[in-house]
Amino acid sequence: AELTPTETLAAHHGSASTLCWPTAQIAYSGSMDGTVREWQIDVASPSATLTGQAAVLCLDVSLSSKLIATGHTDHTLRVWDGRLQQASMQLKLSHKGWVSGVCWSKANEHLLVSSCYDGIVRLWDVRSSLPLHQLTKHDGKAFCLAWDGDEHVVSGGEDAQLRVTRVALPG
Questions:
Q1: CB within 8 A of 131, min separation 6: which ones?
Q2: Which of 74, 102, 104, 148 could covalently link to 152 via disulfide, CB atoms 3.0 to 4.6 Å apart?
Q3: How do beta strands 121-125 and 111-116 pair?
Q4: Residue 85: pLDDT above 90?
Q5: pLDDT-derived band of residue 165, with 50, 70 and 90 as boundaries?
Q6: Cβ–Cβ under 8 Å, residues 36 and 68
Q7: What is the pLDDT of residues 3-57, one digit of tens each?
Q8: What is the pLDDT at residue 93?
Q9: What are phi and psi of 129, to 5 degrees?
Q10: Cα dihedral sign, 71-57-112-79
Q11: 20: left (phi > 0), else alpha (psi -120 to 50), else beta?
């Protein structure tokens, strides 16, 4: 049987390309129109809008640091401070291709991994603008990634491989 939606949330002017639902009350969506919307689920309307210049391909939210990471088609990973009344961009991290995946560490609120169409997965400490590590490159594009919750990162790529890497966490 087909299920019907209980709510329809509409505010983007381009295709919705990525979602993150970190709490029961708040969800985030990214769009090809270059915006990220924060949604108050109980009232079904956006409560904040982050505006970048390029299409949003991926996003993740750190509940511990209140930072929002977004990956874009302009080869940029953006980190936003969601604690401010009007969220502001705190950091722009360059890549050599489209940023296809982002994921915050659950063990360390400053650590973030990103995947890129250049095939590289990068580990970042967002207190710096330089990556801590580059993980072994995929043959072709790196599409997606996840943490195991502690010290392992898995990435998937165009090479049809999942690569599990143990990362040495600082401090």
A1: 93, 122, 123, 124
A2: 148
A3: antiparallel
A4: no
A5: very high
A6: yes
A7: 998 888 888 899 999 999 999 999 999 999 999 999 998 888 898 888 878 999 9
A8: 78
A9: -100, 5
A10: positive
A11: beta
Whole-angstrom Cα Rg for the chain: 16
- pLDDT range class, residue 89, cuts 50, 70, 90: low
* Residues 101 and 119 sit within 8 Å (Cβ to Cβ): no
Query: How far apart, in whole angstroms, are the C-alpha atoms of residue 81 and residue 59?
Result: 13
| Spatial distance between the Cα atoms of 37 and 47, rounded to a whole number of angstroms | 7
Cα–Cα distance between 16 and 147 in angstroms, integer? Answer: 24
Asked whether 70 and 59 are in contact (CB, 8 A), the reply is yes
What's the rounded Cα separation, in Å, for the pair 121 and 104?
13
Dist CA 37 CA 115 (whole Å): 22
| 10 vs 88: CA distance, rounded Å | 23
Q: Which two tokens stand for residue 77?
A: 């990973």
Do 157 and 145 meet the contact criterion of CB atoms below 8 Å apart? no
Task: Output DSSP code: residue 72.
Answer: E
Q: Pairing state of beta strands 111-116 and 35-40?
A: unpaired
- Residue 94 is predicted with a pLDDT of 81
pTM score: 0.90
